[in-house]
What we know:
Elements: E1 2-4, H1 8-14, E2 20-22, E3 27-30, E4 41-44, H2 47-55, H3 62-78, H4 83-91, H5 98-112, H6 117-142, E5 148-151, H7 166-175, E6 181-185, H8 192-204, E7 208-211, H9 216-221, E8 227-230, E9 234-236, E10 241-244, H10 247-257, E11 261-264, E12 270-271, H11 288-291, E13 309-312, E14 319-322, E15 325-327, H12 331-339
Parallel strand pairs: 5-6, 5-8, 6-7, 8-11, 9-12, 11-14
Antiparallel strand pairs: 1-4, 2-3, 3-4, 9-10, 10-13, 14-15
The chain binds 5-S-methyl-1-O-phosphono-5-thio-D-ribulose.
Amino acid sequence: MAVTTGSSAAAAQVAPMASIEWTGEGLRILDQRRVPDERRFVDLGSVDAVIDAIATLAVRGANVLGTAGAFGYVLGVRAGLDPDEVAARVIGARPTAVNLRVAVGLAHDARRRGEDPLDVALALLAEDRDACAAIGELGRVELAGASRILTHCNTGVLATTGRGTALGIVYAKAAAGEPVEVLATETRPLRQGARLTVWELQEAGVPVTLIIDAAAAAALTAGLVDAVVVGADRIAANGDTANKIGTLALAIAAQHAGVPFYVAATWNAIDAGTPSGAAIPIEQRAAGEVIGSGEGAPSADTSVWNPAFDVTPASLIAGIVTERGVLHAPFGPAIAELAR
Length: 340
Ligand code: MRU
């Protein structure tokens, strides 16, 4: 594993901000566990290294997980490993984001047809960039007039290979010269909001205010938010949406406050084979992420329930912004229509 490190300021001058990049020999990722303290690029030269990066959230966010997984598959088959086993292992690295299964499946299918799976991975990288741009523009129009956006987790440059999904809409508003400011939830326990969303918005010059997760309902009822916009790890055929734990609480609070709750996701997050949210597998993560360490940490043997995602029922969702169009209820027929 090769590593390039540098302070954020120094690295910013030499490296474009890209969540992942194919070097010709392997996958270079920005290690998101270190952001914002360090901009550290890591070269992953094997499928095992990619799986480890996915499982430990060095690379994370549904879209970039998918693309990284496809490159991981390429590395595995190039090393002569059994392609079925490689695909199953990469897909198993994180169970909720369907993008991972879709992307690895596409690479695996291409190889079975005798094509180079690397072409698939490279195409996914470019398609994600274009899809994010389309979502940004469609969302900007759909959410015209909403300038105070509350978002959860991280759905931007770090989570995609473009400008992001939910944050892509924020960036599109900013690029169009429209007023926009973000209320970013901290996103316990791994603090993707505090560490990643705040950092990338600050880098982009978009006004951002950090709140603890527990302050979101108060912000919504206090009238501080025009719209909630979040990403998705999997959208069932009826519109039920799995996203970072805490999203459901935001949707319930938004409904109570009369604030529209939107999901922004690329089409490959829609899983037509999963009828409703009840069938979406929810990743359970280690207790240590919640317990933490050091002063004030509960004892290491404390019983913990740590689901990484929850499911928001379609009934709480005002719209789903995809690159193919904006979906409104009833989502089942709307999804089926755009799938054609
Ligand atoms: O556990 P993470 O950090 O991978 O969770 C990420 C999210 O929940 C995002 O909202 C989702 O993947 C969409 S990213 C475009």
